[in-house]
Amino acid sequence: MDKFTRRDFLKGGAITAAAVAGAATVTALNGCTPGTTGTAAEAPKETEAWMPEKWDLETEILIIGYGFAGASAAIAANMQGADALVLEVAPEELRGGNSTACGGGWVSVWDESLYLEHLQKLCFHITPDNYLKDWVEADKGIIDWMDTLEIEHRQTVHNYSHFFTSDSVPIDPLTGNPASGAVGDSGIDQNRAIREDGEPANGKDLHDMLAQRVSDRGIRVMYETRGLALFQNPNTREVLGCRAQDKEGKDIFIKATKGVLLCCGGYENSPELIDYHVMPGLRVYPAGSPFNRGDAIYMAGPVGADLWHMAGIEWLGLGVRINDDDQSTFSDFRGLNSGCIVNKSGERMYNEDMSLIHTKEFPPIYFKGFADDPTSLCDFWGVPSFAVFDETRRLAGNAGFYVTNNRQVMGFAVNHGLYEWSDDNSKEIENGIIKRADTIRGLAEIAGINPDALEETVNNFNEYATQGLDLEYGRTEMSPIVTPPFYSIELVPTFINTQGGPKHSNLDCRCLDHDDNEIPRFYACGECGSVYSMLYHGSGNVAEAIITGKLAAENAAALEPWE
Asked: Which of 242, 306, 527, 560 would be 503's cystine partner, CB 3.0–4.6 Å?
């Protein structure tokens, strides 16, 4: 996959001036050069470029991104009689963004008041209540929309997410968690589409269903085409189209007469934006789409859009890098019997049975150190981390190391079939993903872990496992690491998506500037500026992407075209 840096975007920024200079002869609207006096009767004058004289393509609604939001938007626009064009940066076989990396379930609301209270707690009251109320009401429509699209579905889990019933929650002193009975219902169900074979659909399956409906309607989709910068009228502030780039690197100028919808996800594969908005110096690898490189953030800023929820990131815990440096698997190491997780210093960091998914509690990325103490670590505690286990665990198979079609299906690499983990882990030993040695010390030396510390850690772990009591972290399910040979897998911080993006006015997803004024003809949908500002509950983004894509397209379709 080609790298694309922020500098490449900033060569043009918003297309108000130099972005297309030299690419086409341009004429100011009304025959006047912006910033000068004149009348429409005056002869056209050449001016600094902010709109090309000739567009390569024209559509009424331009949709940038082809996940659930983009596909739903395209269908909704078409149903309203509007012409739509979809740009997808990935090749057709890898289309769909993070939508194809998820489990595929979506939430639907059966009690508005309960779900509103739940969202308010998850968002720490950062997202405005009126927006949350709009979202709760809009989410009720997803079942009708799926029925309209003739996508078979059924409820799979009741009481899918819960919340504390009061601000003064009794805490169990042994676990640090809410005492029994301290949580209440959140008023939502989880639903899942059904494949033709009767099995529940994962994210890629559901996206394929939506993409088929896009194709059936004859809607244009341009693959391997990346939106780079937006055209904006400097007088009216309307967004008029975009400059895109095809797989050959050729610029394409696309006119959108009614509106532009950003449906291109977040910034989980942008190291620079992670440095800005997550933690400087922390490299996080996407288990979602490697094509999500913050394109919407770079396009929205130059046209004056404000951003929100940029710190809303969705951890998937510790993953395994496969194929290339830009991608990781979604791995779930809970239940790693005859095994534990350590850092490069050979120390355990937390109870390995704790979920690291959809949480802000992530011990391995804890930064340890002080600027004024030259003897301190001054590094991330668990980057990288290592799963250490024995032959007994290796023979138990790949469950826990790699989430496969036999378990919950998650992750871009899994759902797109980019890598298939072997059942007995033998292929991973051969290709070096799993390191092997006859002794714990030998394993530490091969893996790059402190040998003395790892030996001590494993000895302590084995004693805890024999006694049935983990004196360090309270783990209850554990078996000794005693059967040679011994193995390790290097692990990296992983997340599935980011929630931040252009700030919205309402569920029509019209983008706002820094003064909360709407930027005309400009929308952002799905996880590109999501409702979730702090904590996220599973299956929420799926419903949000599908519904906000629909609502934004319907709103844009109702506009009069600009001339």
From this structure: 306
Cβ(96)–Cβ(204) below 8 Å: yes
**What gap in Å lies between CA 457 and CA 451, rounded to an integer?**
10
Residues (pLDDT < 70) of the chain are 1-49, 157-183, 324, 402-409
DSSP secondary structure of 204-229: HHHHHHHHHHHHHTT-EEEET-EEEE
Question: Which residues span the domain enclosing 535?
Answer: 6-102+203-310+499-557
Domain count, the chain: 2
State the Cα–Cα distance between residues 532 and 298, nearest whole angstrom. Answer: 21
pTM confidence score = 0.89
What gap in Å lies between CA 462 and CA 155, rounded to an integer? 43
Tell me how crowded residue 474 is: count the other CB atoms within 10 A of its CB.
15
Q: Is residue 22 located within the same domain as residue 86?
A: yes
The pLDDT value recorded for residue 464 is 97
281 C-beta neighbours (distance < 10 Å), count:
11
**Burial state string for 253-279 with b = 16 or more CB within 10 A and e = fewer than 16:** bbbbbbbbbbbbbbbbbbbebbeebbb
pLDDT digits (tens, 9 = 90+) for 275-334: 999 999 999 999 999 999 999 999 999 999 999 999 999 998 999 998 767 889 888 888
Is 128 a domain residue? no
| pLDDT of 452 | 98
Phi, psi of 489 (to 5 degrees): -125, 125
CB 42 within 8 A of CB 224: no
Distances (CA, A) of 86 to 70, 71, 126, 201, 414: 7, 8, 32, 24, 25
Would strands 385-390 and 84-88 be described as parallel, antiparallel, or unpaired?
Answer: unpaired
- Residue 183's pLDDT is 64
Residues 486 and 546 in one domain: no
Q: What is the pLDDT of residue 36?
A: 29
What pLDDT, on a 0 to 100 scale, did the predictor assign at position 333? 84
The reply to whether 113 falls in a domain is: no
Closest to 286 measured CA to CA, from 79, 493, 447, 111:
493
